[in-house]
Amino acid sequence: MAKKQDLNLSLFAFDNYVGEIICGVDEAGRGPLAGPVFAAAVILDPARPIVGLRDSKKLSEASRDALALEIKDRAIAWAIAECSENEIDQLNILHASMLAMRRAVEALKTIPTLALIDGNRCPVMAIRSEAIIKGDDKVPAISAASILAKTARDAALLVLHAQYPNYAFDQHKGYPTALHLERLQLHGVSPVHRKSYAPVRALLNAG
How close are the terminal C-alpha atoms of the chain, in Å? Predict the structure, then answer.
């Protein structure tokens, strides 16, 4: 019999989920050298299905933006939260991601009974949770959370680009691309860079 994480899940697909108020939870922005890490939680409405939900990384920017609007319109509840660069440096990125996910769940206007989390770890929360590996491409509610987290973070990096145009955040969204590393070497570490990340820390130590 296939394990749950190996199945193509849909909301309320399993007998033990009947009667549960399920929220999908995912994060965006663990890898970048700059900017906050974002998380989202979504409770989908089975009566208002959304076509095209999948892992946000497999969607075009235009598709993500369109789906994000549809999710916000059709979901029973949704929330987006973040952890700042300072929190990431203090806690480490894993714990900051867990905290952002917990904040998103706790911000939902409808209280869920079960959180389905993308990945292999769950944040400590007041409600029950279950981790589902690659859930962002299997569970529609997690896919929706993935899309909201990704679009929110991309929008935040455009704001950071306006504040720190030398770093081209609008192009790489903070990820350690060749362009970003070049700008980091040229202009030094900005206030929104994650100082605990190796390329940033190396520059600080050298300086």
Answer: 57
